[in-house]
Specification:
A: globular; B: alpha/beta; six-stranded mixed β-sheet; four-stranded antiparallel β-sheet; 24% strand
Chain lengths: 581, 254
């Protein structure tokens, strides 16, 4: 028997309850309905770590050319500043991505209700469940941080060699140590935060607060990505010693990195001390949260009655009055209400929508960040073309991602086996049901984007031109609304989603092209048109005509056929692997 | 009258419902019986429009339902075998959804929901999500949803599943009363005692084919069996339960 076979056989064997629990929890961290079918945890695991490791591949080439050029300069100052900014970049990247992954795993940071229910009849102590969960989580995060941080740190140390390079084994060890500690700091902090919330929040309110916090953390981490990616270009600021750095966690770990590399400045040493203290404090808090939780949480989880939703009679009556005017048809109302209830209460669906909105916010943030750190920036008071374009791009980017997000989201089922309800009732209501979905996207997609971004337009352009800019950005989002709904003959959340139907790279390219064309080009055209009333009128008429034409085409040629549903086949049929006659 | 003629459903040329015919007249309750995998749920799914038949006809009041299935669905109330509901909706919201999909006006929906929820003792839980409901509570919601539009044809697939004794008694009486009012009731179940008490006729399926179809009394006379349970066991060639028990014990003790 070979070593691999022996290992496989050992893995296949039953071990102690603690080991089996750790194995179970570790695998569950890779369960994702979005990227693979249930049970295909190995596929997700390989994908996650492959992506983490492969981030270092494009870095190699970029670093190599950058440091070759810097070594050829007469002064070593640019080389040293670039080295500092690259170390800060790696630390920030690992912190942001670890924060993102931990935010995604937010509901699994502590044992949940399902864990207790499943293990109710098993001879497993609560203490063992907690210990297994924490160690499985730390194993998962450790593997992620190491895969993400170690290869680029080693590559960076390797490509930096040259005439300005100070040889020493610490060149590789220091950044690895710092990115690892920085990653753990983020992870421990989020565990401690949830632990605190578990005890501070009333049990009935905890799910709602927890979901809100998860969505916020996720959005913040996504929005931090563009800022992180812009760090290598900020090398000219790296010789400054700002006081506010004491409030920025990546700066603490950069200080530690510099101290390990031989910097003896009091400023760096103070930051290094902060880094070590913060990691220790976060780790202690996280462990304390676990120790504190394991006695109380099970009781709280199992004995807290499911809260009934409060009935706001006056609000309900008022909403009914409004909705009856806006949605006079009951089947339309049914789909509108069902979609809204699902989005309001399904954690999974809200997280996916948050992802789309977060990407839009990140892209908007990126346009303003690049503006702030750009050479030509003369303050927000100077209304440059770039600033005006960034302001117009905001509603366009938001509408693109919110509408695309809705379309994607509507394909994700909420409870496939409950689809019989629509199946049995949809017959005569098909056009009405689809109109309910259309109204929903209009009311909770297109209109809120315009309202939310209106203050930005008014702030940048002033009242009259701001309103004109908002109107010009609103019309393309109406047209986009029509395009994305064309051929979408589905009641939201009732069709089965096939994981991996389209390769990820294809999806990213598609969104990249759509973003460049829809946001990049159109924002420039709108800003140009705002310069003269004549141009504005021409563009307004053109956009109106495009929207009317697209809508007419959709209504004329878009046949409302049988609504698409996909259901789980009968168990007997599933085993035969035949789903249709 | 609902008339099903030579109904067939095949999956990859394997017939799971094979040449099934029956008639339900106004006031009739047809008990639809069979062991697991006999084709009961498939028949129900065909009748409700969830899947299409491979062959055969379904006539409602003499008209082939395929001509206007939507009109047929308008007369239909359905309680599925499994209480598959949208777990994030509250009981009230679920019934509201059904009412709206049925095109009932808001005032009718509100009035009927309130009455049904109060009758089924679900009023206090009307704002709780369905995920927190017990099996019996979910079953009551399904029953309310099937009755909310006062349908002419009721298709019940194991409607007593999870119900408490009082509600089960109410439902038994309700079935009789609905039949007395001229409703047609298709009642698929495994609980033979209830079928024996409430159904005017029974149809027993075996491997997709009709093994017997007649009034319970006539079947008792014909087969010289004292109860429906014995008739069922004889027709469906059930294995000896004592043998099964011995096998289970042997398996867990091996």
């Amino acid at each position: 028997m070979t070593a691999t076979e022996r290992l496989r056989s050992w893995i296949g064997e039953t071990h102690s309850p603690g080991f089996e629990l750790r194995r179970h929890f570790f695998r569950r961290f890779f369960d994702s309905e979005l990227v693979a079918s249930a049970g295909q945890w190995q596929v997700v695991a390989i994908g996650v770590f492959a992506i983490a490791v492969s981030i270092s591949i494009p870095m190699t080439q970029a670093y190599y050319h950058k440091y070759r050029m810097l070594q050829e300069l007469d002064s070593d100052v640019p080389y040293r500043l670039a080295a500092v900014s690259d170390h800060l970049f790696l630390i920030s990247l690992v912190m942001t991505l670890t924060g993102l992954v931990t935010a995604l795993q937010w509901p699994s940071l502590f044992p949940g209700l399902r864990d207790y229910q499943v293990m109710a009849g098993l001879p497993v102590r609560t203490r063992d469940v907690f210990a297994a969960k924490l160690t499985a989580l730390l194993t998962y995060i450790s593997i992620f941080i190491i895969s993400l941080g170690v290869p680029p740190c080693l590559i960076l140390a390797f490509v930096m060699t040259g005439r300005y390079y100070t040889p020493g084994w610490m060149n590789g060890i220091a950044p690895i140590l710092c990115v690892t500690l920085a990653g753990f700091f983020v992870c421990f902090s989020l565990i401690a935060l949830q632990g605190l919330l578990l005890h501070a929040a009333p049990p009935r309110l905890f799910p709602g607060i927890s979901l809100f916090l998860q969505c916020t953390l996720f959005t913040v981490q996504i929005c931090l990505l563009p800022l992180t990616l812009s760090i290598p270009s900020l090398d000219r600021f790296m010789d400054q010693r700002p006081e506010f750095a004491r409030w920025l966690p990546p700066a603490w770990f950069l200080g530690l990195d510099q101290v390990l590399l031989g910097n003896r400045e009091p400023y760096a040493r103070a930051l290094a001390r902060l880094a070590l203290e913060s990691v220790a404090a976060a780790a202690l808090l996280a462990v304390a949260a676990y120790l504190w939780s394991y006695r109380r949480q099970k009781v709280r989880m199992l004995e807290t009655p499911v809260s009934a939703r409060h009935e706001w009679k006056t609000v309900r009556r008022w909403l009914h009055g409004c909705s009856d005017r806006f949605l006079p048809n009951q089947p339309q109302h049914a789909v509108f209400g069902f979609t809204m209830a699902t989005l309001a209460r399904s954690r999974f669906h809200r997280m996916v929508l948050t992802g789309f909105v977060a990407v839009a916010f990140a892209l908007i943030a990126e346009s303003f960040v690049s503006l702030l750190f750009g050479d030509g920036f003369r303050g927000m008071a100077a209304r440059t073309f770039a600033l005006r374009q960034a302001a117009v791009a905001a509603p366009l980017a938001l509408s693109l991602f919110v509408l695309a997000g809705y379309r994607y989201l509507f394909r994700l089922p909420v409870e496939l086996r409950a689809n019989w309800l629509f199946r049995v009732h949809e017959g005569r209501n098909r056009p009405m049901l689809l109109r309910g979905m259309e109204r929903f996207v209009l009311c909770l997609g297109v209109l809120p984007v315009m309202v939310l971004t209106l203050p930005l337009e008014l702030g940048v352009f002033g009242t009259t031109i701001g309103l004109a800019a908002s109107l010009l950005a609103f019309l393309p989002s109406l047209a986009m609304h029509e395009i994305l709904l064309a051929g979408f003959e589905r009641i939201p959340f009732t069709s089965a989603y096939l994981p991996g139907k389209r390769p990820l790279i294809e999806t990213v390219c598609l969104y990249g092209v759509a973003f460049a064309a829809y946001v990049g080009v159109l924002s420039g055209v709108i800003v140009s048109a705002l310069q003269k009333p004549g141009y504005f009128l021409i563009l307004l008429v053109a956009l109106l005509a495009i929207w009317v034409q697209i809508r007419r085409n959709r209504l004329e040629y878009g046949r409302v056929g049988i609504l698409e549903f996909e259901e789980v086949a009968e168990p007997a049929v599933q085993t035969l692997a035949i789903f249709r006659d | 009258m609902l008339e099903v003629r030579n109904l067939v459903k095949r999956y990859n040329r394997v017939a799971v419902v094979d040449d099934v015919s029956f008639v339900i007249r106004p006031g009739d309750i047809l008990g639809y019986l069979g062991p697991n995998g006999a084709g009961k749920s498939t028949t129900v799914k065909i009748l409700t429009g969830l899947i299409e038949a491979s062959d055969g006809e379904i006539l409602f009041r003499g008209v082939d339902v395929r001509k206007d299935f939507i009109a047929f669905q308008r007369h239909l109330g359905y309680v599925p075998e499994e209480a598959h509901l949208y777990p994030h909706l509250t009981g009230r919201e679920f019934l509201e959804l059904i009412g709206r999909l049925r095109g009932l006006s808001r005032s009718v929906i509100d009035r009927r929901i309130e009455e049904l929820l109060r009758i089924f003792s679900l009023w206090d839980d009307r704002h709780s999500p369905l995920s927190s409901y017990s099996k019996g509570m979910r079953q009551k919601i399904l029953l309310s949803g099937a009755l909310i539009h006062n349908p002419d044809l009721l298709i019940f697939d194991e409607p007593f599943s999870g119900l408490d004794v009082t509600t089960a008694m109410v439902l038994r009486l309700l079935l009789r009363e609905l039949a007395a009012q001229g409703k047609m009731i298709f009642y698929s179940s495994h609980v033979l005692e209830v079928v024996e008490k409430v159904c005017s006729r029974v149809l027993i399926l075996r491997k997709g084919k009709v093994a017997a179809h007649d009034a319970v009394e006539r079947l008792r006379d014909l087969m010289h069996q004292p109860s429906l349970e014995n008739i069922f066991a004889q027709l469906t060639e059930q294995e000896d339960p004592a043998d099964k028990v011995r096998c289970i014990l042997a398996a867990i003790q091996s």
